[in-house]
Every structure is written in structure tokens, then in C-alpha cells.
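Researcher: I'm preparing a figure for a lab meeting and need a structural model of a single chain. I don't have an experimental structure, so a prediction will have to do for now. The sequence is pasted below. Please return the structure as C-alpha cells so I can convert it later.
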Amino acid sequence: MSLTIERPSLLFLCVANSARSQIAEGLARQMFGDRATIQSAGSRPSRVNPYATEVMREVGVDLAAHTSKSVDTIDPAGVDVVITLCAEEVCPVLLGQVRRIHWPILDPASDDPSLTHDALLARFRTARDTLRGKLEAFAASELPGGPR
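Model: Understood. Here is the structure written out cell by cell.
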């Protein structure tokens, strides 16, 4: 089922708005261009994770200007589709009449001191590549004009 809105507004949500939702926002902006309005937020915003910035740079997306934002700052009236990305934790909620999609993706961030830089990069790359696949499928089935 394709969205009937010419330029839909998509909101990606996770807890800290530091990794998954930032990656999704960056990829969606790159993939969808001006065919959609893209934003991200979280219930407990923190900062953009440096590993997210690093793995996105690998695919030509610069997250340097991105900031972690609170879902409380988002006007529900300006959102058509909310895509939640939480897997093992409780996702934030945006109140309002919006379409809701859930893509459970494990949080690549970790405080485990035994994880090396390379191991963390691998976790972030997995999240990025999983999100890219989901965004490609979303564009093919729902975004006006299909995939690019």
C-alpha cells in the first residue's frame, strides 16, 4: 500500500536519538531526497554516537550537524508516519493521528568494556545495513515514486 501523500513526513524514534534513529534519518535523507520530510527524535535524547557518525561517513552521509532531539519537541500534526526502531527497550511514543510502523533493531551502542573499536563498528554497520534494507523496501512499496 503506497502512501497517498505527495511528500510524506517521516519520524524515526528510538530512546536516545543517538544511533539507530540518527542512522535512519541520515540514510532516508540520502535515499529519498526531497520526496519526503525526514526527522528523528528520542524519549531520552543524549548525543549523536561517534560510531554512528563514523559508519555513516563510510556511505557518504555526514551526521556532523545532527543533534539528539526529544520527541517532546515534535509537533504530531506535522508527522504522517512514525517508525520506531527499539528492540529490547521501550520505544518512545508520539501522540496523535499518525501511521505507526515498528522495525525492531538491536541498539548497536554498548557500555561493555570488552568490545573493541572494530567490534562496535561492526555492530553499527549491521544496524546501518539493516536500516538501509528496510528503507529500500519502504520506498519500493510505499513512497510516492518508488525507489530511486
